[in-house]
Amino acid sequence: MLENIISSLSNYLLAISNGNLMIVAFYAGFFVALMTTLGSLLAIMSHKMPDWGVDFSLSFAAGVMIVASFTSLILPGIEVAESFAPVGVGILLGIALIYAIDRFVPHEHLVKGYEGPEELKNRLKVVWLIVLAVIIHNLPEGLAIGTSLAFDVKRGVVTAIAIGLQDFPEGTVVSLPLATLQKKKLQPILMGALSGVAEWIMVLVGAFFFTLFHGFLPYGLGLAGGAMLYVTVKEMIPEIYKHEKNELLVTAGFFLGFYIMLFLDSMLG
User: How far apart are CA 33 and CA 70, in angstroms?
Assistant: First the structure.
């Protein structure tokens, strides 16, 4: 039944887009940006979020991203190229890209604290540091959706649905700490929405580039997969386990996201 729903949704999007993949990418990007913004709206209701809520949300997102890295990106890339080499190169490029961004763009993690050039530490407000951290995490997600759509519309729709689901709690995770820091409501919501828009833009960039240069698609799928793996393994997992509490809940959240993404992807047969 779910497979029929996904197929119908994909066909509907193609129909209303007159077969234009960029319009489908526009809708997919809008969906993930909307989910992030809706999550940010929870800042209106509360300035506080328990530690377990933050950890569970991040671990759920990590589970989704781990599976999506392989089933929606790396394995399809190998299928397209009929070889591991271009995908392997793409994975290394994705890791290097996010490493460079992580190394040179200042940002503030919720647990680990500041990362980036020390000379910029005092020049940017904590608010923008946190927003930059979330945007860095969201860029690979947007690229993953765009490149998945360029490979196969149905797979791209599944990826957008799964990432959109985990973007809702991610929007909450970024907005509530900002609301706590600033004692305001509107700006944290706008900041959360901004991170969603950044992801939306990357969906369009990925879909446009790899539709135009289809021969580079295996590299792009590997790049998006490598970037997502880097963010998940290097950033998200250490973040959620650093406190050494709520470990059972964190692990449960990870496998919930893992199973949901795997289940959605299995609908493609």
Answer: 23
What's the angle, vertex CA 169, arms to CA 147 and CA 8, rounded to 5? 50
List the structure tokens of 207.
């879909």
pLDDT digits (tens, 9 = 90+) for 65-84: 899 899 889 999 999 999 99
Q: Rg of the Cα trace of the chain?
A: 18
Query: For the segment 177-192, what is each residue's pLDDT rounded down to a tens digit?
Result: 666 555 566 777 777 7
3 state DSSP class of 108: strand
The Cα–Cα gap between 140 and 101 comes to: 12
Q: CA 189, CA 149: separation in Å to the nearest integer?
A: 29
Helix (H/G/I), strand (E/B), else coil: 17? coil
In whole angstroms, give the CA distance from residue 221 to residue 218: 5
The residue type of 207 is A
Angle at 11 between CA 7 and CA 13, to 5 degrees: 120
Q: Is 109 helix (H, G, I), strand (E, B) or coil?
A: strand
**What span, in angstroms and rounded, lies between the C-alpha atoms of 193 and 36?**
6
**How far is the C-alpha of 259 from the C-alpha of 266, rounded, in Å?**
10
Q: What is the pTM of this model?
A: 0.79
Structure tokens, 73: 């990106």
**In degrees rounded to 5, what are phi and psi of residue 36?**
-65, -45
Please, what's the largest Cα pairwise distance for the chain? Answer: 55
CA dihedral 91, 209, 151, 68 (to 10 degrees): 40
Distance CA 52, CA 56 (A): 6
Amino acid at 25: A
